[in-house]
């Protein structure tokens, strides 16, 4: 019993799957978790302690109705986003870098006549 691989269909299917994966990432909702940082406290390395939005739910100061640091009672501030780069852009950049070699190989096969 013999098997035959249709290389042209294999390459077209690979391109289609990559295209659909990129499309689904564009249309998928992105969830952002807000990180809160205490600007007053520092650990031994000089880092400010941080908590995500789920951890700070129990840290509400009833007088100010703001999140307060459990160590110094300072007000927690939402962490600023990095230089205008959102989580969605980060996902697309990681996807591009991971698929770069595969896409280069697929592009090299466009000029080759496959049996």
Automatic annotation (TrEMBL):
GO biological process, one term: transcription initiation at RNA polymerase II promoter
Coiled coil location: none
Assigned GO CC terms: transcription factor TFIIE complex
PANTHER family the record matches: GENERAL TRANSCRIPTION FACTOR IIE SUBUNIT 1 (PTHR13097:SF7), TRANSCRIPTION INITIATION FACTOR IIE, ALPHA SUBUNIT (PTHR13097)
Record-given protein name: Uncharacterized protein
Species in which this protein is naturally found: Hemiselmis andersenii
Native organism taxonomy: Eukaryota, Cryptophyceae, Cryptomonadales, Hemiselmidaceae, Hemiselmis
